[in-house]
Amino acid sequence: MGVQQQKSAAGLASPVISRRIADTKARVCAVAAQKFNEESYAAVSVDQIVALAGIARSSFYRFFRDKDDLLRQIIDPVFELAVQELDGIAVDQPESIVNGIADSYLQVWSQRRDGLILSMKIGATLFPLVQPSHDRYVAAILSLMDQLHQARMLRHDDARMAARLLALTTVPVLQVCERHPQFQNVFRSTLRGLLLKW
User: Fold this and answer.
1) What is the set of domains in the chain, with CATH numbers?
2) What is the pTM for the complete model shown?
3) Are the C-beta atoms of residues 153 and 197 closer than 8 Å to each other?
4) pLDDT score, position 13
5) How many of the other CB atoms lie within 10 Å of CB of 156?
6) Which stretches within the chain are classed as H helix?
7) Cα separation, 141 vs 82, whole angstroms
8) Is the pLDDT at 7 greater than 60, yes or no?
9) Sequence-ordered list of residues with C-beta below 8 angstroms from that of 162, at least 6 positions apart, any chain
10) By mean pLDDT, which of 53-57, 92-96, 179-183, 194-198 is the weakest?
């Protein structure tokens, strides 16, 4: 059954069945993201994923074309949620932008932690699978970094470098800060220190 046929069949299903399908698909994505993070994408097989998710192999292929499609369906929503959160940041006061960026990461972290961690582990071979959603995310971040650069607030006076620094360090910083009792405040202040002159 093709992806379009799956969508049509899901549209005809009762709300209960549709919810069950969505829950099962979400469970597979969650289990796979966690397993990919524990081992590696290459080391984990579809058989391992279906065993951990408690579904039949045939069910897996109703939801995903293959393992690459599963990876895309784990990572794309991470970038889509991030863009949605970033688009909601008010840019009329530059000093609120970094807090908005921090809050967007905290929101993604709370909803899609394993997917966000996994997004950092995608190598050059797999990157084309998620490049469109990644590029939308990068454009949103660069726009905000440009605002901070124009306000002369960036520590290194370089919007692209600030965006790159954010991309490479934010997930490890979240992983360290999440152990602190004041997690959110410590993360926000760390991000401000990383990006801003003051």
Assistant:
1) 3-65 (1.10.10.60), 74-195 (1.10.357)
2) 0.88
3) yes
4) 66
5) 12
6) 3-12, 15-38, 46-53, 57-63, 67-87, 95-119, 127-150, 159-177, 183-195
7) 10
8) no
9) 145, 148, 149, 154, 155, 156, 195
10) 92-96
